[in-house]
Amino acid sequence: MTKFFTRVSVIGCCLITIAGCNKYLDKSPDSTWTELNTPTKVSQLLGTAYPQANYIVFAEAMTDNVEDKGGGVTDRTNLDPYFFNDVSATEQDSPEYYWQACYTAIAAANNALKACETAPDKSRYTAQKGEALVARAYAHFMLVTFFSKFYDATTASSDPGIPYVTEPEKVVMKQYERKTVAYTYDMIEKDLLAGMQLISDENYDVPRYHFNKSATYAFATRFYLFKKDYQKVLEYANQTFPNNDLASNMRPWNTTYKTMTPAVIWDTYAKASEKANLLLVETQSLYGRYVAQFRYGLTYNIQQEILGSNVTGGAFAYPLYYYGTRDYFVPKLTEYFVKASVNATIGDPYVMVPLFTTEEVLFNRAEANAYLGNNNDVLADLNLFASKRITNYNVATHRITTTKIRSYYGIQDVTSGLLQTIIDFKRAEFVQEGHRWFDLQRYKQPVTHYTDKGDRMVLEAGDKRRVLQIPVSATTSGIALNPR
Q: What is d(CA 281, CA 111) in angstroms, rounded to the nearest whole number?
């Protein structure tokens, strides 16, 4: 197991045309939002205010969750990140595709906000304004997370951020400045808090396809965790569900899911009816097709490290399957095919991705409590998680204690041991979903990869390649590339 804790340390398109070589800009600028003249039309536009692209492929390939299997699908979106190189591909599942999708989402949010602001009766658009603000905050948050240095309060005021776009585009080739990570975080927080007050679940037919209240609070827990404002993490985690009921909203891997075939799990995992999913987005992606077949992916050795044992002494209930002898996967996200037309034989592959889940809220709360010294609360959350994840769970046998943690990890400091347990459980829960990259970044952990010939590559904590490169196409808008 990787030890994170041994002690406690208490824009081919420029930004404007990224919007799809934006259909809104095909019209006269002044008509864009005036045509959005009902709350219903604005809500329909907001359905596109979420990045409809997948970061999992390139994020997972940069982590220690993958190895060179010596064969398999060799797509640049998987290969380049494994070798810690800038991704040369620009199509689906690439960083550039994700960048474009984020700014497309931001353009939709800004047009929606303009419509709300110019409406004769602004009070009818309150919920739409709230969703647009939170969606805008989220897309910028993901951009700064991948394309800037990870937030560090000691350097954020000088680290280059990403352009924070707050107005609909009116001219081609508009120039942008990056400002700083601190500025970007301030703007994200401003939008998040303002929008949070206006969100209304009653406005949605299917709340889990939008920033509903629970998803908004979940986003807040991630934002403040990254910012290390642990008291606010607790505040929003405890508001995510009525009566703070995380238990009945978690995936039942060791009960209901245990009886399911892979096909049924695939059909259930990313459904809106699955209570653990707080926000879902449809992404054009080949991930569902190749998750197990990418050359640089989960192997027997790595899955043993992640899923082979844990501090409870019991076995994780996650079902592990494989194709042949080297392609391992936990059935979660799968591909579905969208035809170009009703009678077409061609189309595009999509994957529905949970952007926020109940389990992440639990982990964020547990980590915040660990830093705040609330050890009993941390243990309560860890044991709740274990009760849903350990096969044949028995509280007498599998209950997690600080004594067990010290013994299992060989760590005497209680806080360090609790944090290590959280990170390891989180790694298991989100294997093959890209979340591991965020934790490696937050804790500045080096990542080591090997080729099938045994060559060793290390991505150290301060390596400039940990920050994804700004798409070259965005430089036409005056956005400076990241140093290499």
A: 20
